[in-house]
Design brief:
Elements (H helix, E strand, L loop, with lengths): L7 H19 L4 E2 L1 H8 L3 H9 L11 E2 H11 L6 E6 L3 H7 L3 H4 L2 E8 L8 E2 L2 E5 L3 H7 L2 E6 L3 H13 L4 E4 L12 E4 L2 H14 L2
Parallel strand pairs: 3-4, 3-7, 4-6, 7-8, 8-9
Antiparallel strand pairs: 1-2, 5-6
Helix pairs in contact: 1-4, 2-3
């Protein structure tokens, strides 16, 4: 049976559902209606129902959603029930900051190593994660089941490194380099342009003046 095509907008909202459901679980809330969840999230109840119906619905009319069950099911959809080994390429300030964020591991994203071409950084550790030379990258990828690579390197290096990663079999890249990576269609790239996000915030401030 052909897999249903899910829109990018729905996929983008799924982590928000997961986050809010996690907060509800921490508050010992066992059940919640789409109307109540709507008020918390600022998304219409109709939108919530439509989004979740893409994956089977999970709720009962007049009964609402079981918070723990729905959170776990969305976690499975997002792949959070699996362990995803990651590496970071770029041992500068951003790479170190990401490596130091221990909450990734709580969600199943385990950073196995950091790589950099700067010999002054090689051998150092961030939270017991060793910074290694780019020269050992290919062998490391072969010997470790790395699912995701995080790029925190200058844009003039990112395109070539991304192409090399694709050649090594990497198909998922979290890209913080300020450049678009043109890789084949079977590669998944999530671009994070920090300055663009800041510009959007600036626009909102400016539009109020």
């Amino acid at each position: 049976m052909q897999q249903k095509q899910i829109s990018a907008a729905v996929i983008k909202r799924l982590p928000r559902y997961y986050r809010y459901l996690s907060e509800l679980q921490e508050e010992n809330v066992e059940r919640i209606s789409s109307d109540e969840l709507s008020k918390r999230m600022g998304v219409t109840a109709s939108q919530i129902r439509q989004d979740l119906n893409n994956f089977g619905g999970f709720g009962q009319q007049g009964y609402g959603y079981n918070v723990e069950y729905l959170k776990n099911e969305i976690g499975k959809i997002l792949g959070l029930d699996k362990i995803h080994n990651m590496i970071i390429i770029g041992g500068g300030n951003l790479g170190k900051a990401l490596a130091g964020y221990a909450n990734f591991e709580n969600q199943g994203f385990v950073i196995k190593g950091i790589f950099d071409c700067n010999p002054e950084l090689v051998g150092r550790k961030v939270r017991d994660i060793k910074i290694m030379s780019m020269g050992v990258l290919e062998n490391f990828l072969k010997e470790n089941q790395i699912a995701i690579v995080v790029l925190t390197i200058p844009k003039d290096q990112a395109v070539q490194v991304a192409q090399e990663l694709y050649g090594y079999g990497v198909r998922a890249i979290w890209n913080f380099a300020h450049v678009d990576l043109n890789l084949p269609e079977d590669a998944f790239v999530e671009n994070v342009h920090l300055s663009e996000s800041l510009m959007q915030l600036s626009y909102r401030l400016n539009s109020r003046q």
